DNA sequence: TTGTAGGCGTTATCAC
DNA sequence: GTGATAACGCCTACAA
């Protein structure tokens, strides 16, 4: 039941492994007769080259390591799908790991991936990885391409390519669309200040309102931590207990927006008449909730594919990708909640 | 920037790689002095053993190959999370692949995994893999453990371990609970007849009704293919256009159930007063929809963990697992739709 | 206590 | 046209 090797074939044909190897590679120096005999036996024995040996020989594993801060979100699994599709299409495998929001684990996983001789590393980091960016900068090796997906982390000296969705424009489009519809009192449920993603959306939110000469009420801008439905409910209640109630609640995630919807319904507010609710990501829950949730679509699958293309452009065409920053278009998806 | 090898350390210390290797393995034959010197240099050079070389040497990769028919469902990503947790905990990596419901691709992926020298293969097969079970049986190798998750496939000669959720008991509990509540006219939206999962739930559905001496109306039992919300809506409309309308619709998946809910609401039926709706899986959409969906919880994360434990019991303790069939408890989750 | 050499499976550079 | 051999990085039985 052991796998057949070149040696086995060589023995069977009373020749050497060198000849067998060459024959299987269709080396012109080998006679057609020998080639045929080798191929025949190879087929008979169901010979398959040993990829571990090849990895050792060529110092390449045709493997990428991928780290997700979680796989428990629709958006992240969409990215995984995209990564897988493009990777397998190009003959690469993916070793997948989940850090569960733990930046320390992310650093460890990166080290492990290097030890595994992966040909590249892609990471959807937790928000907190930014606090460990100095350690990260020291760990990252220059000879193995590294791509950061969805977030942006700035280093002292190193240049690392990023791939994100265009949350700035996405937010701007969403907000200005609502402004055009006549909404005026905008609230935002954002993430923590340490999140690059949250900050971009926050900036876009502020600047879009400012450009349209709308007042910005900072009591209507609050942060959530866990991005859960429960948190969304709680924060919505908080917002609706303000003297001057919002007529738009722009949320950091779809799940938070769903929580907001629930809270609003419980309190008897009509959506979108009294209050419009806008989510972010376009996950599978948007079509499920009532009213169906308007949101800003992030192209997860495409981002995954693009990430692999990017890393392969470095590996195959030796392109310098260290300066690359890919920003993928988002799209406003209007449903019933706005 | 090249990784340091035993050779580098040996050269630095004017000794041989054998000595270095032994010193690093704390071999008692090596003098303490040499050990210290080796360790020092190893640390200095940041030596890390080359796992590819070890794989080649020991014919083990500490890697499992995992195949998912899709990663686009909450349940499957829960399983992935469980697999990852337990695998990394035990020092194993996961190479992940997605077959996109294509049984041919599944067979190919299995072959590829063998060529990669994985130490085990786990698969959540597509329904259609059963049609290729003869080919599958021929492909599966006896020296690499193989585990089938979520579905059951029966072979001529080979014995393969399965791990599934107890859909029979889950269905029975769900249905009998509804019977106790006074519902009488049960409809089922099941999957195709070629699906082992669907059939188990179908059997449990029939037998539970029979045991409670309730009439079985076969016009109320219909199949869906894509498990989408749209299909759920369509089939619900079909069911509600029957002369004798059902007062329960038991669905093959949560997403289908959500479609049913939408259709019922559009037609003005009240849930759960006029019609109760029961889903399957307990995915994240259940709490999102209105009314919140009652469902039968499948323990995805636990199934993933258990699968790894199973395969490791074969690898580490040499246990024969070929006859194992693990059936994990489900749990009825009652929410607003029943 | 340490060194030598063979082998894991492959490719590539020499010879012949 | 084919064979022998070194090398990839590591471990280990056997020598010394």
From TrEMBL, chains A, B:
Manganese found in the keyword field: no
PANTHER family per UniProt: HTH-TYPE TRANSCRIPTIONAL REGULATOR GALS, LACI-RELATED TRANSCRIPTIONAL REPRESSOR
Protein name, UniProt field: LacI family transcriptional regulator
Signal peptide: none
A Pfam family hit: Peripla_BP_3
SMART domains with a match to the protein in the record: HTH_LACI
The species this protein was found in: Marinifilum caeruleilacunae
The keyword DNA-binding appears for this protein: yes
HTH lacI-type domain sequence ranges: 4-58
Keywords: DNA-binding, Transcription, Transcription regulation
InterPro entries: HTH_LacI, LacI/GalR-like_sensor, Lambda_DNA-bd_dom_sf, Peripla_BP_I
């Amino acid at each position: 039941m052991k796998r057949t090797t070149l040696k086995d074939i060589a023995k069977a044909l009373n020749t050497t492994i060198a000849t067998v190897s060459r024959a299987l590679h269709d080396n012109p120096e080998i006679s057609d007769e020998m080639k045929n005999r080798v191929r025949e036996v190879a087929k008979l024995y169901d010979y398959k080259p040993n990829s571990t040996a090849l990895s050792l020989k060529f110092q390449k594993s045709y493997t990428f390591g991928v780290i997700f801060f979680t796989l428990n979100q629709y958006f992240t699994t969409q990215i995984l799908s995209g990564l897988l599709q493009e990777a397998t299409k190009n003959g690469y495998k993916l070793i997948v790991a989940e850090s569960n929001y733990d930046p320390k684990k992310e650093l460890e996983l990166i080290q492990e991936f290097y030890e595994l001789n992966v040909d590249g590393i892609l990471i959807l980091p937790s928000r907190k990885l930014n606090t460990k960016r100095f350690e990260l900068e020291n760990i990252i090796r220059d000879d193995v391409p590294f791509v950061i997906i969805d977030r942006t982390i700035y280093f002292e000296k190193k240049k690392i390519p990023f791939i994100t969705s265009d949350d700035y424009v996405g937010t701007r489009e969403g907000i200005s669309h609502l402004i055009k519809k006549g909404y005026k009192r905008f609230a935002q449920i954002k993430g923590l200040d340490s999140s690059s993603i949250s900050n971009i959306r926050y900036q876009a939110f502020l600047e879009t309102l400012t450009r349209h000469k709308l007042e910005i009420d900072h009591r209507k801008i609050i942060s959530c931590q866990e991005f859960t439905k429960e948190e969304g409910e709680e924060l919505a209640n908080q917002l609706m207990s303000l003297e001057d109630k919002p007529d738009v609640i722009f949320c950091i995630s779809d799940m938070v927006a769903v929580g907001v919807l629930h809270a609003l319904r419980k309190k008897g507010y009509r959506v979108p008449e009294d209050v419009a609710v806008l989510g972010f990501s376009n996950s599978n829950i948007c079509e499920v909730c009532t009213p169906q949730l308007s949101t800003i679509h992030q192209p997860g699958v495409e981002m995954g594919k693009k990430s692999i293309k990017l890393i392969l452009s470095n590996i195959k065409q030796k392109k310098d990708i260290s300066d690359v920053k890919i920003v993928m278009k988002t799209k406003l998806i209007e449903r019933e909640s706005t």
